[in-house]
Design goal:
The complex is a heterodimer of chains A (142) and B (394).
Chain A: H1 3-15, H2 21-33, E1 48-50, E2 55-63, E3 66-73, H3 76-89, H4 94-99, H5 104-107, H6 122-141
Antiparallel strand pairs in A: 1-2, 2-3
Helix pairs in contact in A: 2-3, 3-6
Chain B: E1 7-8, H1 19-32, H2 42-62, E2 70-73, H3 76-91, E3 97-101, H4 110-119, E4 122-126, H5 141-147, E5 152-158, H6 170-179, E6 183-187, H7 199-202, E7 206-210, E8 221-225, H8 227-232, E9 243-247, E10 250-253, H9 267-283, H10 285-304, E11 309-312, E12 321-326, H11 331-340, E13 343-344, E14 346-348, H12 353-359, E15 364-368, H13 375-393
Parallel strand pairs in B: 1-13, 3-4, 3-5, 5-6, 6-7
Antiparallel strand pairs in B: 2-8, 7-8, 9-10, 11-12, 12-15, 14-15
Helix pairs in contact in B: 1-9, 2-9, 3-4, 10-13, 11-13
Classes of the chains: A alpha+beta (142), B alpha/beta (394).
Chain lengths: 142, 394
C-alpha cells in the first residue's frame, strides 16, 4: 500500500471513535503493542531520540530498497504514536518516506502531539525517520 | 479544556490571575502609559508614582527595611543571575566555595555553576538525608554544617522545593552560614505564594521571587538585597536609568535600586504585581496557606490509597505541592490521560534533574495547589489518575 493509502486507512479507523477520546487512546495504546521492538542491545545513546520527557529508540535498515524500522519507548502512549508512524512510513522506499507530509496526524485529532514543545518529541521522531531513510539511500548508492 | 471544565493543578508553574490584576494591566495602558523616572509631564509622574508604590507594596509584603532594597527584575531566574554576576565579580575568587542544595531548581544551579567555571571557584552540594525506609526529601543539616567553612562565600538555597514541596529550615541555615562568614541567597519563588515571609527576621542577604507565581503578571520579578550588599555590588546590566552622570572619562551610577534597573522596566508588570499582592493580602495569606494545607492533606490521603502510587517527598513541612510516580508507568502517559480529562498537571523532571537522579526516577507527576482550588478538584484528580492507570495497565 502507498503511504497515502495507509494514511487514509488510519483516518477511517480513528473516525470510528468520533469524540470518544478514551477509545482513541486505548486504540493508540493497543497499536503500541504491535510495534516491532528494537533489540535491547541496540538501545544505545546513538539510537535515542530525545523528546523532553519520554525516550524513543529507533533502528532503521534498508532491505531490497525499502526502509524497515524497529523502535521502542519507555512511555506507553509515545510507543503507540511511534507504532502509528512506523505503520505509515515503514516498508517504503526512502524517496516515498522523505516526501510523506504526514497530514493525517492532524485529521485524527492528535495534532497536539506534534507541537515542537510537546514532551514526547513526535516531531523529532518523524524527522529522524526521514533522515535515516535519506542516509540509508545515500549509503546504498555509494 | 478538551471539552471538560478545566482543573488547573499547575500553580507552582504559574498561577492564574485575579481580574483585578488584569484590570490593572489594561488600566495602565488605557490611562497611564508613559515612561517612568524621566518625564516632567504629569502622565509620566503618575506612572512613576504607581510603579514606585508597587515597590513599597513589595517591600512591606516581605518585611524589608527599605523600598530601595527591592529591585525589579524579569523573574527569579533573572534575580539569581544578577547576584551571581555582580556578587561573583566582586567577591568570588579562585578556590572559593559556593553551596547549593541537591533539591535546587536548575535556575539556582546553573548561574553558580557558570560563575564557578569563570572564577575557578568550587560548587558544593548539600545532600538530602540518607535514603532510609522513609525517604522524606529533607536536607541533611549535619552534612550542611560540615560543608560550611572559611572558603564558603555564598549559600544559594531554595526556601520551598518546587518538586517535593519541602519547606527548608532557612532561618536556621542562614544563621549557620553567617556564622561561617558566608552570604545567603534564598530562592523564594515557591514560598511567597503560600506563606508569610519576613526577610529581616530570616536575615537572608538576598531573596528572589517571581510575580507570575504570585498571581501577578509574567516577566516581572523581585530581587531583595540588604542595603549594604546592594551598595557594594557593581551594576549587572548597564544603560539608561542606571546612571547619575555619564562621561567618556567615567560614569557615576545612580542610587539604589535604579543602579540595577537598566532600561525601561516592566512598568505595568510592577504595577500589576503590586495589585496582586494587595489582592493576596485582602484574601489573607495565612488563611490561603492554611486552606492549601487542607487540600494537600486531602490529596495526599486520597492519592496514597491508590495501589502502586508512590508520593515523592514526605517532609514534615511541605507547601501545597504533591509529586508522585506509579510503578511501571511513565509520568508523561499519566499526564496525557489526565489532560484528556481536562486536568492540568506538570510531568517530568521539573527542572530538578539532580533531584530526580537522587530518587532514581526520570520524572514525576506533580499537582500543585493554590487557594482557588477546591476539594472537588482533588477528587477529579484522584478519579482521573485511577482512570489513567486502568487505561494504561490494560
Amino acid at each position: 500500500m502507498k503511504i497515502k493509502e495507509i494514511e487514509e486507512e488510519i483516518v477511517e479507523e480513528f473516525a470510528l471513535f468520533g469524540e470518544d477520546w478514551e477509545g482513541k487512546y486505548e486504540h493508540l495504546i493497543d497499536l503500541g503493542k504491535s510495534l516491532r521492538i528494537i533489540a535491547d542491545e541496540l538501545k544505545t545513546e546513538g539510537r535515542l531520540i530525545k523528546g523532553c520527557q519520554s525516550k524513543v529508540w529507533l533502528q532503521s535498515e534498508l532491505k531490497n530498497g525499502r526502509v524497515f524500522y524497529t523502535a521502542d519507548s519507555d512511555a506507553i502512549i509515545t510507543k503507540g504514536l511511534v507504532a502509528l508512524i512506523v505503520r505509515v512510513l515503514g516498508d517504503h522506499s526512502p524517496q516515498e518516506i522523505i516526501e510523506a507530509d504526514m497530514g493525517f496526524i492532524d485529521r485524527i485529532g492528535l495534532t497536539a502531539h506534534l507541537s515542537p514543545t510537546r514532551a514526547n518529541g513526535l516531531l523529532s521522531m518523524i524527522k529522524q525517520m526521514k533522515m535515516d531513510a535519506l542516509s540509508l539511500s545515500l549509503k546504498s548508492k555509494v | 479544556m478538551n471539552g471538560k471544565p478545566l482543573v488547573y493543578l499547575d500553580s507552582a508553574a504559574t498561577a492564574q490571575k485575579p481580574t483585578v490584576v488584569l484590570k490593572a494591566l489594561s488600566d495602565y495602558y488605557l490611562k497611564q502609559n508613559a515612561n517612568i523616572h524621566r518625564g516632567v509631564y504629569r502622565l509620566s509622574q503618575e506612572s512613576t508614582v504607581a510603579f514606585e508604590k508597587a515597590r513599597v507594596v513589595v517591600q512591606q509584603f516581605i518585611g524589608a527595611r527599605y523600598a530601595h532594597e527591592i529591585v525589579f527584575t524579569a523573574g527569579t531566574t533573572a534575580s539569581i543571575n544578577l547576584v551571581a554576576s555582580s556578587f561573583g565579580k566582586k567577591f568570588v575568587n579562585k578556590g572559593d566555595e559556593l553551596l547549593v542544595s541537591e533539591m535546587e531548581h536548575h535556575s539556582n544551579i546553573l548561574p553558580w555553576q557558570v560563575l564557578c567555571q569563570e572564577r575557578g571557584a568550587v560548587l558544593k552540594v548539600i545532600p538530602l538525608k540518607d535514603k532510609g525506609e522513609l525517604d522524606k526529601g529533607e536536607l541533611d543539616l549535619e552534612a550542611f554544617k560540615k560543608l560550611l567553612g572559611p572558603k564558603t562565600k555564598l549559600l544559594a538555597l531554595t526556601q520551598v522545593s518546587n518538586t517535593l514541596g519541602t519547606v527548608n529550615p532557612v532561618t536556621e541555615m542562614i544563621a549557620l552560614a553567617h556564622a561561617a562568614g558566608a552570604a545567603v541567597l534564598i530562592d523564594g519563588a515557591q514560598a511567597v505564594p503560600h506563606m508569610k515571609v519576613n526577610v529581616v527576621a530570616m536575615d537572608c542577604d538576598f531573596y528572589c521571587f517571581s510575580g507570575h507565581k504570585l498571581y501577578g503578571p509574567t516577566g516581572i520579578g523581585v530581587l531583595y538585597g540588604k542595603e549594604k550588599w546592594l551598595k557594594e555590588l557593581p551594576p549587572y546590566q548597564v544603560g539608561g536609568g542606571t546612571i547619575k552622570t555619564v562621561r567618556f572619562s567615567g560614569t557615576e551610577y545612580a542610587e539604589l535600586p535604579l543602579k540595577f534597573e537598566a532600561g525601561t522596566p516592566h512598568i505595568e508588570g510592577g504595577i500589576g504585581l503590586g495589585v496582586a499582592i494587595d489582592y493576596l493580602n485582602s484574601v489573607g495569606l495565612d488563611l490561603a496557606g492554611a486552606y492549601e494545607q487542607e487540600l494537600l492533606r486531602y490529596a495526599t490521603e486520597k492519592l496514597s490509597a491508590i495501589g502502586g502510587l508512590r508520593i515523592i517527598g514526605a517532609a514534615a513541612y511541605k507547601a501545597a505541592v504533591i509529586s508522585f510516580v506509579v510503578d511501571g508507568l511513565h509520568a508523561l502517559d499519566i499526564g496525557t490521560i489526565l489532560d484528556q480529562q481536562g486536568i492540568a498537571v506538570r510531568t517530568g523532571h521539573h527542572c530538578t534533574q539532580p533531584l530526580m537522579e537522587r530518587f532514581g526516577i526520570s520524572g514525576t507527576v506533580r499537582a500543585s495547589f493554590a487557594f482557588y482550588n477546591t476539594f472537588e478538584e482533588v477528587d477529579k484528580l484522584v478519579d482521573g489518575v485511577i482512570k489513567a492507570l486502568k487505561m494504561l495497565r490494560s
